[in-house]
Amino acid sequence: MTGKKTTRRSAGLLLFRTGAGRGLEVFIGHMGGPFWAGREDAAWSVPKGEYAPDEEPWAAARREFEEEFGHPAPDGAWVALGEARQASGKTVTVWALDGDADPATAVPGTFSMEWPRKSGTLREFPEMDRFAWCTPEEAAERLVKGQRVFVDRLREHLAEGGAVSAGGGG
Q: What pTM value is reported for the model?
């Protein structure tokens, strides 16, 4: 008899703005750690993280934004961008929020891992080592492939004059 495998789930928050003189921009972070060092294309992510079955996804998205960027998410109405299954098998749920953040003020959370591998040395790395505002076209090159759909969904939503949901996503 085999046990049921639990689907890993993450939730994230994609900030966006439209008044910066470049049209629509989204706020994404470059993934930290040695695997992503020196990579640009497909090495960026929506600030997001895993959550437990008993946690509300929007609450996890808010928590993870603060953990990864180092500052709370701005207030405002959230746009549900739905779910997408990643190549790893993880299901990611993302909301968008019209807001602003200064990438230079990031104070990212960290994680520990053995590095170099099999060295016995634990090193600490930032979860995200830098943040940037990107046009949708720039984001399409930078984001990991499975997250690009969220920028497309945001563009469709804004093109349709879409409304946003009230409150903090929940």
A: 0.90
